[in-house]
């Protein structure tokens, strides 16, 4: 796979009162062009921080190191802030869980949409540019599946349903045809039907224009069939990554396995029985376990686990665990 | 024996004032009745704006019904003091994160309901709070944290801890599971099941998740545009739904079948 985004051993270190802590610990991610990749992890696992590191929204006090942090042919860590902003602004976009954080409450949707269209792409004299902007804004709305464009453009953000607001934030995000869209839990608070619409829309956009999407979610059940690959992250460490089907059908990693059995999508489980779950709590930043950070909660942990396991590759899947659930070449 | 909760023909109207024009009555909830026994769990489902949150707020006493009455252990809720009601019914709000006070440590916030509603000694309060923190999957350390120092899922857990710290008879939760981490969500579901078994707590929750509803509830109430269109046992509504909407809402999407070899140990 030739990766359009290639991240190797990326670490982000924050200062805490107990000294520095790696919030992202030698994290790896490869994303192919036009691919949807879902990053699954519980809260505080560092998903949003990873997104920020990719986009370059970085607090100067964070210590960021990586063997590789490449976007297309750019070595992102070698670029200065200004160069980085240009690359990010041109190639990348992000949508968030709460679209209203993205929209200005005081301005009509139409005006905000027109503003999001890059001026460089418009040509001609002032009046023609204005008309051009309007047509493009309409086309953007069509692309995110909104038909009654005139009505929507006249509304203020608070007059939109959550699904509609998210569609508009997507329209604004794709206005400059980004090559990478990072969707940070775009549907968490939505009803299933709205959620489905947004996912279908994202999948269509990715397929239609070869846009890569990094989908971020806390929940394995939110992984859509269109997502070719998934990665599971726990406390800043990569647990398992690979083609979605393979990882879901036969996980190597205890964390993937636990996430699957906790997802409640197993119909055979009797009502009101206690669900299998990881015991204990996600550790605080100040108390990160050494070695494999799942250790204190992992039913398979043994002595060796105080050393961080290296990534093991089995065909397409990679995982970091000393005691995987099965060995490969058990052909069954 | 009296029913734990008996809801009789409650309805809710809002008066919408438009300038100096006479107010227009908007019906948020048409008269509806149902009842719940001790230890039972009721799930409320419906589309956005169908009145789910209104019911939740009326039961929790966060809002008053325009007509009708809610009886708790046979006593009319409208005749209770706030303190009486608070001890028996606690609510976890949809935007509970915003209901945490950013200036006060988690521990102090959890002590507050104990200070206002019980005669517990400070030592007992502290012990109870530690217990509750552990129950919701937080650590004793978190006692001294301020809300902003917690990840979003952890803040949600604080809200749940605050709801159960008084050991109420009814907990009302409006979409309180959505933002929880899967491992914590499973723990919380187990916790609710445990609390019900140990203390007979009843649980009323609004949820979109067909999986959670089917797993946890005894009864389901389906709302559509301010009307209760179906109410019955979970089994009845799953097996013989009368309304198409019920069928739709209870249909769970299985994108991936969970492999049966799953081996997670307790
Ligand atoms: N600006 C910051 N300063 C200090 N700590 C931070 C900062 N931003 C994030 N953290 C900490 O870094 C860790 C990872 O945070 P991050 O926001 O990336 O998690 P996440 O996986 O996105 O979680 P969620 O699912 O809750 O959104 C958390 O422990 C968080 O408290
Ligand atoms: S390395 Fe050890 S602690 Fe980590 S997941 Fe594997 S068995 Fe569990
Ligand atoms: Mg996040």
Automatic annotation (TrEMBL), chain A:
Residue span(s) of domain ABC transporter: 7-260
Gene Ontology BP, a term: peptide transport
GO cellular component entries: plasma membrane
Membrane topology per record: Peripheral membrane protein
PROSITE patterns documented for this protein: ABC_TRANSPORTER_2
Annotated localization: Cell inner membrane
UniProtKB keywords: ATP-binding, Cell inner membrane, Cell membrane, Membrane, Nucleotide-binding, Transport
Protein origin, superkingdom: Bacteria
Protein name from the UniProt record: Peptide ABC transporter ATP-binding protein
Originating species: Pseudidiomarina homiensis
Automatic annotation (TrEMBL), chain B:
GO CC aspect terms: plasma membrane
Keyword Membrane assigned: yes
One of the GO BP terms on file: transmembrane transport
Domain of life: Bacteria
Localization of this protein: Cell inner membrane
InterPro entries documented for this protein: AAA+_ATPase (IPR003593), ABC_transp_ATP-bind (IPR050319), ABC_transporter-like_ATP-bd (IPR003439), ABC_transporter-like_CS (IPR017871), P-loop_NTPase (IPR027417)
CDD domains, A to Z: ABC_NikE_OppD_transporters
Membrane disposition: Peripheral membrane protein
Keywords per UniProt: ATP-binding, Cell inner membrane, Cell membrane, Membrane, Nucleotide-binding, Transport
Keyword Nucleotide-binding on entry: yes
A GO molecular function held by the record: ATP binding
Residue ranges constituting the ABC transporter domain according to the UniProt record: 5-250
Family, per entry: Belongs to the ABC transporter superfamily.
Name the record gives this protein: Peptide ABC transporter ATP-binding protein
Species for this entry: Pseudidiomarina homiensis
